[in-house]
Amino acid sequence: MLASLTRTCARHRALVVVWLAVLVGGVLAAPALFGRLTAAVGSVESSESVQAAEDLWQAAPSGGQVYAVADGLPADQLRPEVERVTAAIAALPGVTGVATPWTTGDPALTAEDGRAVALGVQFEPRDELAEGTVDEAVRLLRSLDAPRVLVGGGMLLDQEMNDQAAADLARAELFSLPVVLVLLVVLFGGVVAAGLPVVVALVGVAATLLALLLVSVVTDVSVYAVNIVTMLGLGLAVDYALLVVARFREERAVDPGVAGALARTMATAGRTVAFSGATVAAALAALLVFPDPFLRSIGAAGLSVVLLDLLAALTLLPALLARVGGRIAPAAPTASSGGLFARAARLAGRRPALVVLATAAVLALAGAPFLGAVFADPDARSLPASSASRQLTEIADERFPAGTDVDPVTVVAPAGTDLTGYARAVRELPGVRTVTERTVPGFTVLDVLPEGDSQGPTAMRLVDEVRALDAPATVRVTGDAAFLTDYQDALVDRMPWALLVLLGTTTVLLFLFTGSLVVPLTAIVLSTLSLGATFGALVWVFQDGNLGALVGTEALGSLSITTPVLVFAIAFGLSMDYEVFLLGRISEIWRATGDTDRALREGLARTARTVTSAGLLLVVVFAGFVAGGFSPVKQVGLGLVLAVLADITLVRMLLLPAVMTLLGRANWWAPAPLRRWHARHGITEEPAVPQPAVSAA
């Protein structure tokens, strides 16, 4: 199949034009896509908290809000200017209310030092809102004559996150692609060979943007999702193209004819790339198991991106190689006894048990901080320090009365329910600041203001404790803390099924590729160890604030709730990606020689340069996103950087060779019926001609 596909791609120049059209389409799609993004991260529509919030909104529909702080003068001096501006805002069509310290009589809207006031503007539901009303209200708020004016939050938070996502994506590409090109020139020793992976990467990013635009037609696409999926698409495109071009150079060292080298490349490395893509797709498919539309949309978009990158690597790249392959220099002979990987393999072979224990201990120690992980939904604090919405949140925390910026734990009961005794019991719970009763059509509501943050430990505990109280009627709990509690519970409930999909498909795919059941299980255990270390490092950096200056963050006190799920799925897929490429060579040599030690030594020597280079290029791509300003994307970016570095160093250089040395021939074990089945139906990579000479170092 790959042979005929390669011949077709090599013959038809129009294929390059088709991919050029995709590139142009992706560039044109970008503005439309960023205009359709939402700031929503995760929710479960069927959960108690979401259903209760929806019922409250249906009973008393309301639109979004915009907030402002006028700072730098005593409140009495600010009052005339605030009243002038808010009177103009209140007259705008679609404005349903304006809150100031003087219209509400609420002292919480005045800073504790008396030198700042907070304002809020409430709008009609978006579908009823007159066009331009929000923009005019924002303009008026910003026109306040005060030493310092901050306008943001609410409806503006989505726009700030959209703008930050677009800026981060542009910054990441401007950083990553030139560095990737320079590294590829150093690796391949020529601009032509180096340029091909970059071309495929650009096309991959364009195809990614088009895919996300199509996804946004059917479901919401988060600002968080677009950068995650684009990061993955860019990295995989470079990765796959690198593997193909590297093998093409090896094949030209055997026979310099372009057509023959291309055919052999796609029959070997092309097959491995296709299989590697299948393992990444299998990992991303696990995201489809979760009930959250956000994770499912990343899973679906991620699957699309993997398939598009594979399609580009298996069609566009052969078409380009057929035209410029003659200008790409053959690879130099590989040293079988030299190189860092080969030396590490020999060390692992001499002291395998010691290497396994020491390396596993290092990874386990690095993962220990994850035991104290705290999770939260992204909010304004996820934006850069220069963001107006973040500054509003910080000034509310630092200078306004406690609880001003805290979302209550909201208890919803049927209308007419006597909640007097129940409210008294709630008020006596530890960590409750105030309890306020109100009514909306059809419901009686208690707003329970917790100590600490909206999604802090106290608020999260209160959700469980309030739900556990005996109530005079059926009550439901909603609010930010309840959303997060229900979301965490939904993730935990579906996690076993997601792991079954991820680990089950990985085991099947690696068995098809190697004919062994031991190799897939070994790969799963080693990848889990390295990912545990990655999660521990993320807690240490983002939650605890260590080395924050290095990655542009501060102690956040928590990780984004979706970070571990996304990093696990993506990094596990990438780990299996390298596993397939490495095992393709090791199993090829083992089948030819029956010598596991030799297969390890020569397989590592042949693949070391390419695997290391591919990993480092992925690190460069992911590092571009770490440099962005949106914290959840930074977390995933750094998580993938650390996961790839751990995989290509500790796991591939030390742990894997040591474990395979200890297992010996048992690496290739499978029950006899499965061995017979694999002999007939398995997928293996067989070289079409003898491999390039291996030189002695």
TrEMBL record:
One Pfam family in the UniProt entry: MMPL
Principal localisation: membrane
Membrane topology: Multi-pass membrane protein
InterPro entries listed in its UniProt record: MMPL_dom, Mycobact_MmpL, SSD
Bilayer-crossing regions: 174-192, 199-218, 224-246, 272-291, 297-321, 353-376, 495-514, 521-543, 555-575, 611-630
GO terms under cellular component: plasma membrane
Gene3D superfamilies (UniProt xref): Multidrug efflux transporter AcrB transmembrane domain (1.20.1640.10)
Subcellular location: Cell membrane
Keywords linked to the UniProt accession: Cell membrane, Membrane, Transmembrane, Transmembrane helix
Domain of life per record: Bacteria
Domain SSD residue range list: 191-323
Signal peptide region: none
Family: Belongs to the resistance-nodulation-cell division (RND) (TC 2.A.6) family. MmpL subfamily.
Name by which UniProt lists this protein: MMPL family transporter
Organism: Goekera deserti
